[in-house]
Amino acid sequence: MSYEKAGKIAAEALQYGRRLIKPGIKLSEVVKKVEEKIIADKGAFAFPPQISMNNITAHYYPDPSDDTEFKEEDLVKLDLGVQINGHIADTALTVDLSENNEHLELVKASKDALKEALTLFTPETPLTKIGKAIEEVIVGYGFQPIRNLSGHEIKPYELHAGLTVPNFNNKDRTPLEENQVFAVEPFATTGDGYVKDGKPSGIYKLVNPKNSRSGRDVLNFIIDNFKTLPFHKSQILKKFGDFKGSFGLRILEREEIIHQYPQLVERSGGIVSQAEHTVIVKDKPIITTKI
Ligand code: MN
Ligand code: MN
Q1: How remote is the CA of residue 241 from the centroid of ligand 2, in Å?
Q2: Domain limits at 9?
Q3: In this structure, are 18 and 159 located in the same domain?
Q4: Beta bridge partners of 126
């Protein structure tokens, strides 16, 4: 089954990436190697692999020109997505590079919250019960969940489809149904638990595939290669060159045909950990991204 195959490739790429994250190594080098591994394993990207550090919570893609290196005090989140025929696996983990494992509890908080949440992905569970469990575990560690980020339902070629999985008790009584697929992703923070928009990420997604005269070539390439899945600017520049690629993206963004994601940062400057798996709802839930 494609969901499970994508899950296995994603899980192996995540563990491979984890071992590459070390002080003095470039973020862009890790992302490049992870991408190569996914391709070698015959997976396709569901979105560009991301490495967000410290108070940056999500949507940081280190492109080949990014010279940022890991430092000893960094708390590093690696988040990647693989798809096979549009069947998506989305998974993430956090690596603590501090010398004395300073952030051990913060890392455990999101990891334990995820573990607890995954047991609840059985038919009829109301979504809020999952949010409540996540919130209780994280608050139990003395941290806050990120309340304005959530897990999400997954459908073929749709990364954020339909329902959302709250990271707190949001009173949503919608019941889970058998065979629904979800990415579950608790975030724990030392801050007050909300993200705000940061810098542009260079990650885009097709939102409204209407005609565009001057952006047509770039648009057709996006439709053929990514459909509605997220992609990075560097994938466009590689195909069209810097000038035509940047111009095309600018036009399509202005015409509201594509949307650019901002980086997301914890608004009070708190540092953030994340853990994520993809799960299929069953009497005995299937975690596709577990090895
Ligand atoms: Mn993810
Ligand atoms: Mn996700």
Answers
A1: 30
A2: 2-197+264-287
A3: yes
A4: 175
